[in-house]
Every structure is written in structure tokens, then in C-alpha cells.
Write a structure and sequence with these properties.
There is one protein chain. The termini are close together. The protein is built from 9 helices and 2 strands; from the N terminus they run βαααααααβαα. The protein is elongated and about 60 Å long. The model has no long low-confidence stretch (mean pLDDT 95). Helix 2 packs across helix 5 and helix 8 crosses helix 9. The protein has a domain of 106 residues: Transmembrane di-heme cytochromes, Chain C (Fumarate Reductase Cytochrome B subunit, Up-down Bundle), CATH 1.20.950. A two-stranded antiparallel sheet has the order 1-2. With 217 residues, it is mainly α. The structure holds protoporphyrin IX containing FE. Protoporphyrin IX containing FE binds next to helix 1, helix 2, helix 5, helix 6 and helix 7. The site of protoporphyrin IX containing FE has 24 residues, from helix 1, helix 2, helix 5, helix 6 and helix 7.
Length: 217
């Protein structure tokens, strides 16, 4: 296979992500962690100690919005890269109706999954909604440059929306990380870019068949 290499035992591997896709994902993920800790530091006294991660309260307040812009741009590029893999089709609707089989790892009973399953696709769109909400509300509450253009009730509503979107985003990413750990071999896909034939055949059989078909041409 042209785009495969081998693991330490000599088993063939399939390329799932390129270097650029992985760097793009990890820049987004690192920004997310910095934003989550700095955001929580500003949100509540119980988590204010988290300001230490960005060098104290002043730096937290200065840096948080700029890191937010970097995450938004990085995430937007990720969305453009993966958009075509996330169209919801009939097989996805069927997958959602068989949640019992999904949760009990009876993957043989599920419709054949392509690059992503319905859960990953829904998460993708939830993340997009959160990012748009965070960007728009974040601009309104950015005291140093924009907040003075808006009346106080708008700033208060934006602060609420910002906290709501951040809560949904943090909970979604916890689910995302849990799923990445639960489906053994997924972290390797995002770290090294490759997966085993077994992983691909078991979790994403339609994608696996496409890769094999393309490699034969
Ligand atoms: C912080 C720790 C994170 C870990 C450990 C992690 C792990 C992973 C893994 C293993 C995959 C590959 C799944 C597969 O190929 O089936 C993936 C995909 C992806 N991740 Fe993350 N991720 C993290 C954070 C984030 C963040 C913060 C975002 C965006 C806000 C994000 C957005 C995505 C997207 C969009 C995909 C592609 C899935 C799709 O398009 O439906 N990830 N992640």
C-alpha cells in the first residue's frame, strides 16, 4: 500500500491523518486547555488558582482573548479540512437508533461506518456552534478593545452566552477525550497519524474498504 507503513511488530499500518492535520488538531487542543484553565480562573473564586498557568490574574485576562482568537482560526481550518467527512447520511440515523449496540460494543450489528460515526459528526457540529457563540460573545465582552461599543445589558447577555458555550464546549471535549481513550488505538491516529488494519476494519469498515480500494488503483 502506498500510504502505509509498519508498526514495531511488522504489521502494516494505514495513514488516517497527515502531519498538517495532526498539527492543526493539536494547536486547537492546546489552545483549548489554556482557554479552559484561564477561563475558569476568571469565572469563579473556587477556580481562581488556575490563573497560575498563565502567569497570574493580569496575564490571564490579557492572554485569554488572544488565545481564543488563535483557537477559533485553528478550529476553522480544521473544520474546512474535515467538513466533507461529516455529512450525516442514512447509515448515521440508523447508528443513532442502535445506541444500545453502540454502548455495548456490538459493532458487527451496526451499519458500516465511514471516516466518522454519527456521534463524532454530531460532536463536530456542536463544537462549531460553541465556537461561533464563544467568538461573538467574546468580542462583546473584550473590555480592552470592544466592550465600550455595546450597552451594558448586551455585555451582560454576552457574558452569559460566553459562559454557556464554554460549559457545553468543555463537557463536549471531556466526552471527545473519553471516546478517544475508550476506542483503543484512536489516540495513536492523532499522535502518529496511523491506525492498524484491525482498528480500521472494526471501527470504520466503510472507510477501510475505501482506503483499500484506492490503494489498489
Ligand atoms: C485535548 C485533548 C484532545 C484529544 C485527546 C483529542 C483526540 C482526538 C482523536 C484521537 C481524534 C481522532 C478520532 C478518529 O480518528 O476517529 C480526534 C479528532 C478530532 N478532534 Fe480531537 N482531541 C482533543 C481535543 C480537541 C479539541 C479541543 C477540539 C476542538 C475544539 C477537537 C476537535 C476534533 C475534531 C474536529 C476531530 C475530527 C472528528 C470529526 O471531524 O468529526 N479535539 N481528536
Amino acid at each position: 500500500m502506498s500510504n502505509s507503513n509498519r508498526d514495531k511488530d511488522g504489521n502494516p499500518l494505514i495513514q488516517r491523518y497527515t502531519k498538517n492535520e495532526r498539527s492543526n488538531h493539536w494547536i486547537t487542543a492546546i489552545c483549548f486547555i489554556l482557554l479552559a484553565v484561564s477561563g475558569l480562573a476568571m469565572f469563579h473564586p473556587a477556580t481562581s488558582w488556575m490563573a497560575v498557568f498563565l502567569g497570574g490574574g493580569q496575564w490571564t485576562r490579557i492572554l485569554h482573548p488572544f488565545i481564543g482568537l488563535v483557537m477559533f482560526v485553528s478550529f476553522a481550518v480544521l473544520v474546512l479540512r474535515f467538513w466533507h467527512h461529516n455529512h450525516i447520511d442514512a447509515a448515521d440515523k440508523q447508528w443513532m437508533q442502535q445506541m444500545d449496540d453502540v454502548l455495548n460494543n456490538r459493532e458487527d450489528k451496526l451499519p458500516k461506518i465511514g471516516m466518522y460515526n454519527a456521534g463524532q459528526k454530531i460532536l463536530f457540529f456542536v463544537l462549531i456552534a460553541c465556537m461561533i457563540g464563544l467568538l461573538l460573545s467574546g468580542i462583546v465582552i473584550w473590555r480592552a478593545y470592544f466592550a465600550f461599543y455595546f450597552p451594558i445589558p448586551v455585555i451582560r447577555a454576552a457574558a452569559l452566552l460566553h459562559a454557556f458555550c464554554a460549559t457545553v464546549l468543555i463537557m463536549s471535549i471531556i466526552v471527545h477525550i473519553y471516546a478517544a481513550l475508550w476506542v483503543k488505538g484512536s489516540i495513536g491516529a492523532m499522535v502518529r497519524g496511523t491506525v492498524t488494519y484491525g482498528w480500521a476494519r472494526k471501527h470504520h469498515p466503510r472507510w477501510f474498504e475505501e482506503v483499500i480500494r484506492k490503494s489498489r488503483h
